[in-house]
User: Fold this.
Amino acid sequence: MGLSCAQKDPSVLSEKWKKEIAETEKEFADRVLEIGMREAFLEFAAPDAVLMRDNTLIVGRNSIADYLKEPPSDGTTTSLTWKPDFVSVARSGDLGYTYGSYVFTIT
Assistant:
């Protein structure tokens, strides 16, 4: 039985991870349009996810759910669209992030 210590080229892995992150961002954005912002966040957020809003940390999926309560029944609607302009991944693969522009509308 032979074993190999060969590892994949880090640049190949980095590009693979960047593609996965960009695809997940697109899936999330599509779900926001399909099922709404709150439900999409709850579908994609990790149990220990953290959002920062108005200089306040919102920690955990349940707290995010409370923060993103359904809009009032007065006809107010919200929408969120975005696309990442940049994706980066740590060489180790244990951290990835995106940034870009977005449009959040309240009607």
In short: Helices lie at 10-35, 37-44, 61-67. The chain is about 40% helix and 30% strand.
